[in-house]
Design brief:
Elements: H1 2-23, H2 30-50, H3 52-77, H4 80-87, E1 91-99, E2 104-105, E3 113-123, E4 128-130, E5 134-139, E6 152-161, E7 169-172, E8 181-184, H5 188-204, H6 209-220, E9 230-231, E10 234-235, H7 247-259, H8 270-286, H9 291-308, H10 313-331, H11 337-351, H12 359-382, H13 388-411, E11 414-416, H14 419-443, H15 448-473, E12 479-481, H16 495-525, H17 538-558
Parallel strand pairs: 5-7
Antiparallel strand pairs: 1-3, 1-6, 2-3, 3-4, 3-5, 6-7, 6-8, 9-10, 11-12
Helix pairs in contact: 1-2, 1-3, 1-11, 2-3, 5-14, 5-15, 6-14, 6-15, 7-15, 8-9, 9-10, 10-11, 10-12, 11-12, 12-13, 13-14, 13-16, 14-15
């Protein structure tokens, strides 16, 4: 299913580019459309060369994805909110919407907080129309206190097309517009999770500056300075803080993590789900629970963890892929990571074709695919020149970055040379810091003292990460420039640079494969030596060292 997933993704992007080209919106990029169509054509030719059945499957996938993407694009184009934003630069409206993310610090200077929402209806004061458009809501002052995750509100604001970001529309409110009207409060489970998150942020505010910034990022996927603390119905961004974290320090930390190539640690990914699932499987194995009950517990833990995290595209990928693995465990089949990833991509893109343009979703999928395909071969090959533990960790790091590098260059034309050593150095601390942070989230609402102790334990791990990031990012060659698109295209990003990286990686793989083949030929041409290679493990090495030391001492003592 991997070729099918690839074709589905390329088809969704191609249909989006073609739609923009014919409708004259979003500055369509003809180069991107040509590359996507070429990729689809090459995949279909390869499928035809293998079997006609494979070609049939690819054609069906192209048709389904094309229809789905075109339907979503047309629905968005003819939505009343989109039409109103296209008609005038700014439109005063009364919007009824459902909040789908917790409020965070605003990226606009004229607002205090922001959140994503899905419209229910839109009114200009006289006529109300039904709408299903997604937008980003910006609010200020006490209005932020009413933006509860999961609630349905009615609010006055100015509707306009988005200048940046994932959401196509912005709704900006002013303090003079009045307070939002809550039509429906969040459900009890959502209110419970909100209380847990607020209690967790309350205990992290008592940590040092790096802990206040990094522990929430590692645990929930949102940096501490981006959290908007809402309590008792009153907006207070720094309610529990003794002194606010300096903006210069937070920018420095973010820049160090970005330059050292470990910014992905501040986003919730599959690592959280793997740690929780592994803990549950071990506990169930101790209790000798049946397989189907274990699968149900794993699936429930995935759902609860995803609900407690800040929504993101990487969380969606990890959740869907994890649930597919739980289903495989339930029916008694061995989990297949590539198949689960492929079905995850196909299902998500057919249900929501806009995810094809998400860099977060693309980076998450590419990292998982690289680890599954290349981690074990690279680790095995590196074991001949370094210890096994280091070889496995290095192999996983290189494998994950092998497929994410072109996407990163598509986002920003630079190459982080410190990424591999940084990931190797912080990897021993990520697991325990993440589990300590999740434990703090779980107990902070009931016992703030215990929650603070666990959060402080997590901050010990994040402090090591912060020091490593600062050390490696200060190097002269931590980040080097990569050839950028001379045309400066906004739609395709740095597409020529990404293609150049793909070509460079392909040439490197070809050279390595040629070197391995040449080495095998040379070894085959040499006469075979008697015996077998001896590669003892750590325990055997220690035993041999003690045995030889004992023999050596006994011999000297007898003399």
């Amino acid at each position: 299913m991997l070729p099918v997933a690839f074709v589905v993704w390329m088809t969704s992007l191609a249909v989006h580019q073609a739609f923009n080209l014919f409708m004259g919106s979003d500055a369509p990029d003809v180069l991107s459309l040509a590359v996507l169509l070429l990729a689809i054509l090459v995949a279909c030719c390869i499928a035809y060369a293998s079997s006609r059945a494979a070609l049939t499957v690819l054609i069906v996938a192209v048709c389904l994805c094309g229809i789905s993407t075109l339907s979503v694009a047309l629905a968005q184009w003819h939505d009343p909110a989109t039409r109103a934003a296209r008609r005038t630069a700014e439109t005063a409206v009364i919007a009824t919407m459902r909040i789908i993310t917790p409020p965070t610090a605003s990226t606009l200077r004229d607002a205090d907080c922001q959140t994503d929402a899905v419209l229910r209806s839109l009114s200009d004061g006289s006529v109300a129309q039904s709408s299903l458009a997604s937008l980003r809501l910006f609010a200020s002052g006490t209005a932020c206190a009413q933006l509860a995750h999961g609630s349905v509100i009615r609010i006055h604001g100015v509707l306009q097309q988005a200048r940046y970001g994932k959401q196509p529309l912005w709704l900006i409110t002013e303090p003079s517009s009045g307070m939002p009207e809550t039509i429906r409060a969040p459900t009890l489970p959502r209110r419970t999770i909100t209380v847990m998150q607020q209690s967790f942020f309350s205990v992290t505010e008592r940590l040092s500056d790096q802990g206040r910034v990094l522990v929430p990022g590692l645990t929930l996927g949102v940096l501490g300075q981006d959290h908007v603390n809402i309590g008792d119905g009153v907006y207070d961004r720094q309610r529990h803080a003794q002194s606010p974290v300096e903006e210069a320090y937070t920018e420095l930390v973010e820049d160090n993590f970005r330059r050292s190539g470990i910014m992905h640690l501040m986003a919730v990914s599959g690592g959280h789900f793997m740690l929780v699932a592994d803990l549950i499987r071990r506990l169930c194995a101790r209790l000798l629970m049946p397989r189907r009950l274990v699968a149900g517990l794993v699936a429930a833990s995935y759902l609860l963890l995803a609900a407690a995290m800040y929504p993101s595209d990487s969380v969606l990928r990890a959740l869907v892929m994890g649930l597919l693995g739980a289903v495989a465990l339930y029916v008694g089949r061995r989990g297949q990571s590539v198949s689960a990833l492929s079905w995850t991509v196909i299902g998500v893109l057919l249900a929501d074709p806009t995810m094809a343009r998400s860099y977060g979703f693309a980076l998450s999928c590419a990292a998982v695919l690289g680890i599954v395909l290349f981690s074990r071969p690279l680790g095995t090959w590196m074991e001949s020149v370094m210890p096994k533990v280091l070889a496995e960790s290095l192999g996983m790091t290189v494998a994950a970055q092998s497929l994410t590098l072109p996407i990163q260059i598509l986002m920003e034309p630079e190459l982080s040379l410190a990424s591999v050593p940084a990931n190797l150095l912080v990897s021993p601390f990520v697991g325990f810091a993440t589990m300590a942070g999740l434990a703090a989230l779980l107990v902070a609402w009931a016992s703030p003292t215990l929650g603070f102790l666990l959060a402080w334990t997590a901050s010990c791990g994040t402090q090591v990460m912060e020091r490593i990031a600062a050390w490696l990012a200060s190097g002269r060659y931590a980040v080097i420039a990569w050839p950028a698109d001379p045309s400066g295209g906004q739609t395709s990003g740095n597409l020529p640079g990404a293609l150049l990286m793909l070509l460079a990686e392909a040439m490197l793989v070809a050279v390595l494969l040629y070197g391995v083949r040449l080495t095998r030929r040379l070894s085959d041409s040499c006469p075979e030596l008697p015996g077998k290679p001896f590669r003892p493990g750590p325990r055997t090495r220690i035993a041999l060292w003690f045995a030889h030391t004992k023999t050596f001492l006994e011999r000297d003592w007898r003399r």
